[in-house]
Design goal:
mainly alpha, about 50% helix, about 0% strand, about 80 residues
Length: about 80
């Protein structure tokens, strides 16, 4: 299955956010498969499954604010 970037942009809005969200979903899918003993023979790759779920709006995501600053000053 191929996901043209134009379709991703049209569906998601921002291609960079789409890549970040889909990569995190792929990691989640992969960790679930590993916990279950591995992927079955002929299973769809986690990256393809994550993009499919993203394009069909099955992935729920939101922004999380991080504390500022991202570094600690010491004396």
């Amino acid at each position: 299955m191929v996901f043209p970037i134009d379709d991703v942009i049209r569906s998601f809005g921002n291609k960079y956010e789409a890549i970040i969200v889909s990569s995190r979903e792929a990691r989640r899918i992969n960790s679930l498969r590993l916990a279950a003993g591995g992927a079955p023979e002929g299973a769809v790759k986690p990256t393809v499954e994550a993009l499919r779920r993203l394009m069909s709006r099955e992935v729920k995501w939101r922004y999380v604010e991080r504390d500022q600053p991202s570094f600690v000053e010491t004396e």
